[in-house]
Design goal:
Elements: H1 2-9, H2 11-15, H3 18-38, H4 48-65, H5 72-93, H6 95-124, H7 129-147, H8 157-181, H9 195-200, E1 226-231, E2 241-242, H10 247-250, E3 253-255, E4 260-261, E5 264-268, E6 274-275, E7 277-279, H11 287-293, E8 302-306, H12 310-316, E9 322-326, H13 331-341, E10 346-347, H14 354-365, H15 369-373, H16 381-387, H17 390-404, H18 409-423, H19 429-454
Antiparallel strand pairs: 1-5, 1-9, 2-3, 3-4, 5-6, 7-8, 8-10
Helix pairs in contact: 1-8, 3-8, 4-5, 5-6, 6-7, 13-14, 14-18, 17-18
Length: 461
C-alpha cells in the first residue's frame, strides 16, 4: 500500500509531511503493541462493546447508502457493510461462540492467503520470491495463533486483530515517511535512467488542477479519457470455454479442445499513446508447456512487439471485452514512461506481459492524481480522504496478489476499476443520497405548483 499512496499523492505532497507521517506511524505501532499485549490475558481493558457498537453503526450506515454507488462501488459498499455488521454481531454476541467463529474466520483468511502466496512464489520464481515465501510463512503462523485457544480461549480475538492492524499500519506509515524523505522523484513510476529528465520536466504543480473534484459516474463516450482495454480469457477463447469460476476470471480459460486462453490488456490515451505488448511469435500454451512458462526466469524471455493502435489490433483480432476509462491522468508522465518502456520489447508470460505493462503505464499516468484533484484543499485532507476510501485497500490487495503471482487481465481489470475510483473520486454516499432526495422534493414541488395552476377553478353556486 505504501507504493500506491506514493503514486496517488505524489512524492512532492508527501515529502513535506514526512515527519508527521513518521510520528503517526510510531504512535500507531506503539498503540497496537499495547492493545495486542493487553489481549494476551483474559482481563481485557480494551473497550470491546463500544468498539463493536461503532462497527455496527458504520456497517449499517454503509448499507444505507450502498445503493447510491455505481457498478463495483455499489458491490464493495454492500460487502463492506455486511462484513462490518456480521463482525459486530459476533462481537456483541460474545461468550465463546462469537469469539470462536471470529477466530476461525481470521485464521482461515490468514491461512489461505499465506498458502496461496507461498505456492505462487515457488511456481513463478520472480526476483524476490524467497521474501514472499517468508511472508506467507508468517501469515500461516498467525493463522495457527488464531486457530488454537491459547492463551485466552479466543476472548482476545478482536484486540489481536486491531493490534496487528495498528502495528502493520504504523509500520507502513514509517516506511512511507522514510522513503519520501530521501526522494525527489517517484521510483514507482520513473526509471532510474530517466531520473534526470523527469526531474527537469513539468511537475504536477505546474499543470492546471481539475476544476471538478468529484464525478458522479464514469466518463461519457464523447469525453476524452484514458482507456484501459481488457480482453477476458473467456471472451477470447477460440472454442467454447469450460467454465471454471475464479480460474477463468483471473488466470486462464480452457476450451473444449484443451487450448488455453489468457486474455489480453492494452492502454490507450486521447493523445495517441497506445500500449499493447504481445509476443512476436505465438507461445505454445498447451497444458504440458504452460507450467514451465509460468516461471519468471530469463530462459522464458521471448521477443515481443507493440501493437500500433487499437483499431489495428481489434480489427485483426476482436474488440476488447471491457473498457475502464479515467479522466484524471497526466499525459506528460505517460508519454515519458512510454518513450522509455518501448525501447525494450522483451516479453515474458509472467513478469513482463501485456497486463504488467498496462498496470505500470497506468500507475505512471495517474501519479499524483489524488493530490491534483484535491489541490484546493490544504493540509491533510487529501491524505485522509485517500486512506478512508475502500477502493485503496482493494487496489492494494490486488497489487499485492499480482506482485506475488503475476499480472493477468483479470487482475489488471480489478486494479484499473479500483484506481479509477481513486483518480476520479465519486461523491459520498450520504451526499449523493441527500442530493437525490432534495432533487426529488424540488421536482415534486414544481409538479404540484404546475398542477395547481392548470387545475380548473371551482365556480360558486
Amino acid at each position: 500500500m505504501v507504493r500506491l499512496v506514493m503514486i496517488l499523492l505524489g512524492v512532492d505532497y508527501l515529502r513535506t509531511r514526512w515527519r508527521a507521517l513518521a510520528a503517526l506511524g510510531g504512535i500507531s505501532g506503539a498503540l497496537g503493541i499495547v492493545v495486542f499485549i493487553d489481549a494476551l490475558d483474559s482481563a481485557l481493558y480494551f473497550p470491546i462493546t463500544p468498539f463493536a457498537t461503532l462497527l455496527l453503526l458504520e456497517g449499517m450506515a454503509t448499507l444505507a447508502v450502498a445503493w447510491t454507488g455505481m457498478g463495483g462501488q455499489r458491490t464493495l459498499r454492500y460487502v463492506k457493510g455486511s462484513a462490518f455488521c456480521f463482525g459486530a454481531g459476533l462481537i456483541l454476541i460474545g461468550h465463546e461462540h462469537g469469539n470462536f467463529v471470529l477466530s476461525m474466520i481470521f485464521g482461515t483468511l490468514f491461512l489461505a492467503d499465506g498458502f496461496l502466496q507461498i505456492v505462487s512464489a515457488r511456481v513463478v520464481r520472480y526476483r524476490t520470491w524467497r521474501l514472499a515465501v517468508i511472508g506467507g510463512a508468517v501469515e500461516i503462523a498467525l493463522a495457527i495463533f488464531f486457530y488454537q485457544p491459547y492463551p485466552t480461549h479466543y476472548v482476545g480475538t478482536v484486540p489481536y486483530c486491531l493490534g496487528l492492524g495498528l502495528i502493520f499500519g504504523g509500520w507502513n506509515m514509517i516506511l512511507l515517511a522514510s522513503r519520501v524523505r530521501r526522494l525527489s522523484i517517484n521510483p514507482a513510476v520513473v526509471s532510474a535512467e530517466r531520473a534526470a529528465q523527469a526531474a527537469s520536466a513539468t511537475s504536477p504543480q505546474q499543470q492546471a488542477a481539475p476544476t471538478i473534484v468529484e464525478w458522479d459516474g464514469p466518463p461519457g463516450a464523447d469525453e476524452p479519457a484514458l482507456t484501459i482495454h481488457v480482453w477476458t480469457p473467456v471472451g477470447t477463447s477460440k472454442g467454447e470455454a469450460r467454465r471454471q469460476p475464479i480460474i477463468d476470471r483471473y488466470i486462464a480459460a480452457v476450451d473444449r479442445n484443451g487450448v488455453i486462453s489468457t486474455g489480453h490488456a492494452a492502454l490507450e490515451s486521447p493523445e495517441g499513446v497506445y500500449i499493447s505488448l504481445y509476443p512476436a511469435v505465438e507461445i505454445d500454451r498447451s497444458p504440458d508447456e504452460f507450467t514451465r512458462l509460468l516461471r519468471a526466469t530469463r530462459e522464458n524471455d521471448v521477443p515481443g512487439l507493440f501493437q500500433p493502435d487499437y483499431l489495428t489490433e481489434s480489427t485483426a483480432w476482436c474488440a476488447s471485452t471491457i473498457q475502464v476509462r479515467i479522466r484524471n491522468y497526466d499525459p506528460e508522465r505517460l508519454r515519458r514512461f512510454w518513450e522509455t518502456y518501448r525501447r525494450d520489447t522483451t516479453y515474458n508470460l509472467t513478469y513482463r506481459n501485456c497486463s504488467s505493462t498496462v498496470s505500470r503505464a497506468l500507475e505512471a499516468a495517474i501519479e499524483g492524481a489524488s493530490a491534483r484533484v484535491w489541490s484546493g484543499y490544504k493540509g491533510w485532507k487529501p491524505f485522509l480522504h485517500l486512506i478512508a476510501t475502500p477502493e485503496l485497500w482493494v487496489a492494494a490487495q490486488v497489487r499485492k496478489r499480482a506482485a506475488t503471482m503475476a499480472w493477468t487481465p483479470g487482475l489488471t481489470l480489478d486494479y484499473a476499476r479500483a484506481l479509477s475510483m481513486l483518480a476520479d473520486p465519486r461523491p459520498s454516499g450520504w451526499v449523493k443520497m441527500a442530493r437525490l432526495a432534495l432533487g426529488k422534493m424540488y421536482r415534486s414541488r414544481r409538479r404540484w405548483a404546475e398542477e395547481a395552476r392548470t387545475a380548473p377553478q371551482a365556480t360558486p353556486k
